[in-house]
Amino acid sequence: MPMETELSRIGISLPKNLLDKFDEIITIRGYSSRSEGIRDAIRNYITYYRWMSDVKGDRQGVITMIYDHDQRGLLPTLTDIQHDFMGIIQASLHSHVSHNRCLEVILVHGDGAQLKDLAERLMSQKGVESVKLTTIPIED
């Protein structure tokens, strides 16, 4: 990645528990500042986005999602999204991690663009903590 030359100052609002966890990680990893940790996190996000952009053709994969099942309106929204993609969803597994956190694993097969679209729609919902799409190409 090219060296950044100009710095821009931004302001963000984060829940205290998220910032506390982030601070703990940057301390463990030895970052010199929050800013350096945030820059590294953004670089990783960009790399992951580019990797996801390369998901093309017939693919088999899995979507791993962690979400807060107490988030108002989230469960029906997730169900509706999955129904919109029932042509590519082969199976799903739901597990209760804690009182309010759930882990869902969705097995998918189809065109890479559709798999990415599903993952991105799930990812954009308020109350969804994490979504990871992992795929492999289908070869004859």
TrEMBL record:
InterPro entries listed in its UniProt record: Acetolactate_synth/TF_NikR_C (IPR027271), ACT-like_dom_sf (IPR045865), Arc_rbn_hlx_hlx (IPR013321), CopG (IPR002145), CopG/NikR_regulator (IPR050192), Ni_resp_reg_NikR (IPR022988), Ribbon_hlx_hlx (IPR010985), TF_NikR_Ni-bd_C (IPR014864)
CDD domains, A to Z: RHH_NikR_HicB-like (cd22231)
Highest taxon of the lineage: Archaea
SUPFAM superfamilies named among the record's database cross-references: ACT-like, Ribbon-helix-helix
Cofactor(s) listed: Ni(2+)
GO MF: DNA binding; DNA-binding transcription factor activity; nickel cation binding
GO biological process: response to nickel cation
Swiss-Prot/TrEMBL keywords: DNA-binding, Metal-binding, Nickel, Transcription, Transcription regulation
Residues of the Ribbon-helix-helix protein CopG domain: 9-48
Matches recorded under Pfam families: NikR_C, RHH_1
Residues binding Ni(2+): 83, 94, 96, 102
Note describing how the cofactor binds: Binds 1 nickel ion per subunit.
Residue ranges constituting the Transcription factor NikR nickel binding C-terminal domain according to the UniProt record: 61-136
NCBIfam families hit by this protein: PRK01002.1, PRK02967.1, PRK04460.1
HAMAP family noted in UniProt: NikR
Function recorded in the entry: Transcriptional regulator.
Family: Belongs to the transcriptional regulatory CopG/NikR family.
PANTHER family with a match to the protein in the record: NICKEL-RESPONSIVE REGULATOR
Name of this protein: Putative nickel-responsive regulator
